[in-house]
Amino acid sequence: MKYAFFPGCVSRGGCPELYPAAKLICQRLDIELQEMPGASCTGAGVLQEKNEFLGDTLNARTFAMAEDLGLPIMTICSTCQGVMSQANHRMKSNPEYLAKVNVELAEEGLEYKGNAEPKHLLWILIEDYGLDKLESLITKPLAGIRLAPFYGCYILRPTDALDFQDNPDRQSSLERLIETLGATVVDFAGKTRCCGFPILTINEKNSMAMVGKHTAEAKDLGADAMVTPCPLCHLNLDAFQPKASAQAQRSIDLPIIHMPQAIGLAMGISPKDLGLQRHIVSTKALITKLGVAAG
Amino acid sequence: MDVTFKIKRYDPEVEAPESYWQDFSLTLDDSATVLDGLIKIREDMDGTLSLRCSCRSAICGSCAMRINGHAGLACKMQVRLALDDDNVIIIEPAGVMPVVKDLVVDFDMFWSKIMEVDPYLRPEGTEPDAEYIASNEAMLHLSGVTACIMCGACVSDCTVMEVDPTFLGPAALAKAYRFTADPRDGDAQGVSRDRLEALNEPTGMWDCTRCAECVEVCPKGVAPMDRIMALREQAINAGFDNTYGARHAEAFSNSLEHSGQLDELRLVPNTVGVFNLPVLLNMAPEALRALTHGKLPPIIHKKIENADRVRKLFRRVEDPDRS
User: Fold this and answer.
1) Which domain holds residue B291?
2) Is the ipTM of this complex over 0.85?
């Protein structure tokens, strides 16, 4: 299996532990990754506030590069996934719009033919790779560990752009992955809600209220950690958890794990190689409970 | 089909009222809607069950409630499509708004926010001799927003209103867009400057997180979040570009234009202002923790390969002189 790899900005920026962890587990899974060094940021929905056409054209540019490579695109970020899927949906459902985008791409000799189907690693594991095959590679099941799923809005909504109609399993993909890793799913209402990251600089109080509400709810239901396929959610839920905890006037102390890190732990990769020591909320208690050496 | 309705109930008239769950087992036709089931329960099993309903045709907007955790119209959802493996369906009152009794919520907050955006045309300048002219295209575009039936589903599931009821919210902001996008509203060019200025304030358009819950639960395809994004674009284009939200979009865009990817380190200072010490100091503990954990984004921001091509694309698309 080979994919055009689109890691996104945050996996190499604010969450620098994610990019190597994802590459490490893909290597173990025998998933080959081809980098696209000329691909730009998706716009993250923020550029789209200012100019949606420009954002869509940037994504079409990335899709065209992957088409030229003859490879499907893999993302490791819910936000990248959602923004790409939304752009793709607009272009695929409107040939005139796609033609307008292609006029811009032609300036640098590119054309998006409309065949890209960007997929998050989470969906790839379930739909292309197979959870049975993943299970066969698990050497250190996360038995006894209680993990709360946290999806990130963009990988869940709007469902028409994300093809949920044709792929209904995407709705519960993270829970199914957690079960495959041998852990127990902590189901909670906040799992599909917003982490608050998009309004962090605009309305910090509301953003922190969201972090506090979701992490505290999972903690109170007995979660050992929260697992997310979105590095932006991770940034808010982990790096800003101390602030959210102060605002909520209660302790929370819930480690937030990137999805590839959880997979890596179940495959017996050391916590250090997966970058768990880089998290703001300490992962030490989790590592102790796992019964593995930290590094 | 034999089904169980698990309903969240609340009676304000008992001593120390508290919500509680009650199960009702009943037999329904395969084509029954959730509302059919609820009416059957009220008529045949428990006459005290309170709910609002009227048209049964997804037109009046009375019967919005949470079905299996998400807002929707009870009359539009078929029971057989909402059952779990044990043939159970979970029914709760709409969220965010206070519960009056059982599935009936108090809509005062919903209506006061709609009223806050002055939901009527406010043309400026001289009146035309005859009628105001609007193009078919503009009116067809607006028909997507005027499809709103004020059911409150979007407000029920809004992730911001859940933590901050002062937010104007998806219904009122979509309603505001219905007027800002109307060529008859505002100045001679159809720009509703006063409205955009007011909506640019805290609790307005920039407080939305873009979570898309409202898009997903709206039974009429109004897509409130998309209207809020369009409001932001209108506000920036009208020159209201000095909010954190607008500056965040600008700083983000500049970063992409310059290097093809996001410069996370400079995004916050460029948004709030490099000399805005109170806000920057407020973020200092997080920055320090990131630094000590090896998580601070790179000081020297890298460009993607052939970043100049992205820069040229930005310039072409954003060229104001372009027709």
Assistant:
1) 244-318
2) yes
